[in-house]
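Whiteboard transcription, Tuesday session. T.W. wrote the structure tokens on the left side:
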């Protein structure tokens, strides 16, 4: 099964939402999208944007583990924060972040 399969992702989000006893309209309102758009995500017609995926994760309290991606070593709050920043960054911002991290790694290795 592919993790970027729209139907798999949508069905997983729908199942998690239902287990959390949250109506589709409630979740849509909480993350700032229309109920129609959320319906298209849950039925596999659309993928959520990364920003909306993170909002859903926050509201529904799910992790990548719920999608079959073992993230056991990503339990660190710092790593999760870095991932959120990286995934929500534009290409230009991501390039800048990489350059900063590479520079910091060089400095750390010198000490």
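and on the right, the sequence the group agreed on:
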């Amino acid at each position: 099964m592919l993790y970027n399969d729209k139907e798999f992702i949508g069905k997983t989000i729908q199942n998690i939402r239902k287990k959390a006893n949250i109506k589709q309209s409630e979740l849509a309102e909480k993350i700032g999208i229309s109920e129609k758009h959320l319906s298209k995500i849950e039925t596999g017609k659309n993928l959520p944007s990364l920003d909306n995926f993170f909002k859903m994760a926050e509201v529904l309290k799910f992790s990548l583990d719920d999608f079959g991606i073992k993230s056991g070593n990503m339990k660190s709050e710092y790593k999760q924060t870095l991932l959120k920043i990286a995934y929500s960054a534009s290409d230009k911002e991501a390039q800048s972040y990489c350059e900063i991290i590479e520079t910091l790694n060089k400095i750390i290795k010198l000490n």
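Someone added at the bottom: The CA atoms of residues 43 and 90 lie 28 Å apart.
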